[in-house]
Amino acid sequence: MLSELSISNFAIIDELKVSFAGGLNVLSGETGAGKSIIIGAVTLLLGDRASSDMIRSSEDAAVVEALFDIGGNEALQETLRQRGFYEGNDLIIRRVVSRSGKNRVYINGHLATVALLAPICESLVNICSQHEHQMILNEDNHVDILDEFGGLLPLRSEYASLYDEYQSLNARLRELEAANRRKEEREELLRYQLKEISDAALSPGEDGFLAEEKTILGNMQKLMDYAAGAHETLYGKKGSVLEELKGAIACIREIKKIDAGLNVSEQDMDGLYYQLEDAALTLRDYGKKLSFDPARLDAIEERLERIGRLKRKYGGAIPDILKKGEEIAGELQGIASADAERERLAKAITEQRTRLEEKADVLSRKRKAAAKLLKGAVERDIRDLRMEEAQFEVMFSEAAVRKEENAFGSTGADTVEFYLSTNRGEDLKPLNRIASGGELSRIMLAIKKVLARTGSVGTIIFDEVDSGIGGATAEIVGEKLKEVAKHHQVLCITHLPQIACFGDRHYRVTKVATGERTNTRVEALSETERLDEITRMLGGLELTEKARQHAREMLTASRRGYRSDNGRTDR
After folding, report:
1. Domain that holds residue 259
2. Which of 357, 374, 445, 460 shows a CA-CA span of 20 to 30 A to 492?
3. Phi, psi of 315, deg, nearest 5
């Protein structure tokens, strides 16, 4: 329930604060006083798009805030709890619209987003206005109204889960079939790539070894020259290192014969000689083995070029190429098993479709039963609203061929549309072919009243529900609004005294000029002020005693009782 509404710097409103209670809250006032601005502020709280045009001239920001009593709305409380906004039975929603574009949304003091408002506010307020007239005219919404009336939304949710799974299976099958159409071309490419990698017979690290061998072959003459020179220096030429070292060793022996105190080890010198001798022999053998092989160098360069091509094509290193080969082999295996997967999916789709058909049949039967009840309930109310010859019908257009994939939609196998005949002898026609705004307002009010007991929304706002009606019909509309207010908090903006007199509370909306600025005010009326306002609505600016007496009689009659659903007057 909307307990309190606070608006500042919004359109022509500078500061406005108004408290509402349960039952029927009536707002009246001259045309242009700002009643529609109040509705605009509420829609902003419900997630409507914000614009800097909403901000009062010369102000930087507009603020709209509302306090809702959500005691007893366990579903909404759980939603708030899951999102971290739960603060008990009070819910405060605040929107700040700034000229700088830095707009803000707060839920119970926590910064939030506009996207979060929809799931939270859908059970708070429903605005019944000319815009909603268009929603009721849209046949796509009729099945939702019927399912809400019949209490079929849980069953429809079960169907929707089956439908989503059915669609998912079909999507996967379409993917496989599309892949199958490309299979031959893809398979040929994959087999070529796998052969290219397999034929290369790559080994990890192979490219490094080949690069080293290429370096050796490319410097073969230098290696031969260095090996020969080193061998010659150590051993080959006259006066070589080993020859000189051998002479030095002989001198050391002679010294030791004379002076044993020489601290030079003959064994160490002999060991050094043999080490150098081994090195000289190794260099000799190494040099003999060296030979330039241009054919081998060409083969290495060709192999490295082949590996380079594979690297550029399949990966930056040999392990990457080998891994790509494994992936290609896996994809080829997947292609080979696609036929089995398609068969499995086709079987699963058939089974899922059977379950879907069964659930759709149950849903359709229950809808048709609910449609009869809805027809009777709506016809009773629209006939009370001075459309005595009106006939209401819920038309079904069931999918003709259940074997077609598109026979089912997200809401079932039925297409539902509301038809109406307003006068005797006229054929039933779709609602969107009804020309009279008054008739449309009455049919919408009738549907709202019928749904009142089933809907979970806390507050219903009726804006311009009196469009195109007057006199005794307006009185009946007031009675119907009073009936709706038994189950919901109702806010009704009206120009008709016949409706206003049924309010549990009456608010007057006025436009006041102060200095160079204009501002909208909302004030709760006392009994005396309410009598004056009803009198004004009856007789205009001049409040005559006759008009006042008429207003008093209307208020007394509305308090004494109003007609119930069976057409009798409750006392």
Report:
1. 186-331
2. 374
3. 165, 165
